[in-house]
Amino acid sequence: FVTLPQVPQTQREALQERFQRLFQPGTEVGRQLALIQARQLIADYPLTGVGPLTFGRLSRERSPFGDVEAGREHSHNFFLESYLSFGPVGLLALLWLLGAAAWRYGRASRAGPGSDQLVVGWSIGAIAAFAAVLVQGLGDFVFTNLELFALLLIVAGVAYARNLVASRPAAARAYASAP
Per residue, what are the HEC states of 4-35? Predict the structure, then answer.
């Protein structure tokens, strides 16, 4: 038995209104403004970025138009927000971390004789999760919810931990036989 929470009527109406606006040209000016402001901040801080999750506050403070999109705290793009938060080196490090984790999962997903099917299934699911997050990140930034970002990093960490255990068979056997 599963109980799902009810979405408040105001949130449902707001989502319906926003969905309807998607089909009316020129109504999503907030994203265009975010891109313009992101370019300005990158020009001002090309190497360091502006700090984690500070784009929304800085863009509101510097905007001559006021807060066009109420409550906007991010740049609506995972890659752009990562660049703004950590600079180019931080963005490359994050992409390397996630890419190397996906590569490790790719190696673990190759089913062969003696393969643990749970590891193969987990690896395929993790690759799909990484792909979904990165594709979705092209149009939005979901990591203002830090729990989701922590989950992504935990899934990436499991790839490294799994690779470490797989590279040390004696340690893995000792761990598996421990009470």
Answer: CCCCCHHHHHHHHHHHHHCCCCCCCHHHHHHH
Residue 140, both tokens? 């939005």
| Other residues' Cβ atoms within 10 Å of the Cβ of residue 81 | 27
State in Å, rounded, how far the first CA of the chain is from the last one. 34
Q: What is the dihedral of CA 67, 70, 76, 78, to 10 degrees?
A: 100
How far is residue 68's CA from residue 76's CA, in Å, rounded to a whole number?
14
Burial 105-118 (b: 16+ CB within 10 A, else e): beebbeeeeeeeee
Report the run of H or E that residue 79 belongs to, with start and end: helix 78-108
Q: Which residues contact 141 (CB under 8 A, 6 or more apart)?
A: 74, 75, 76, 77, 78, 80, 81
Structure tokens at 42: 């990158």
Running along the chain, 179 residues long, what does each successive block of 10 average in pLDDT?
69 76 68 82 91 80 62 76 91 92 89 81 89 81 74 88 74 60
Burial class (CB in 10 A: 0-12, 13-18, 19+), 119: middle
The token pair at 39 is 């370019």
**CA atoms of 20 and 140, how far apart (whole Å):** 18
Are the CB atoms for 98 and 154 separated by under 8 Å? no
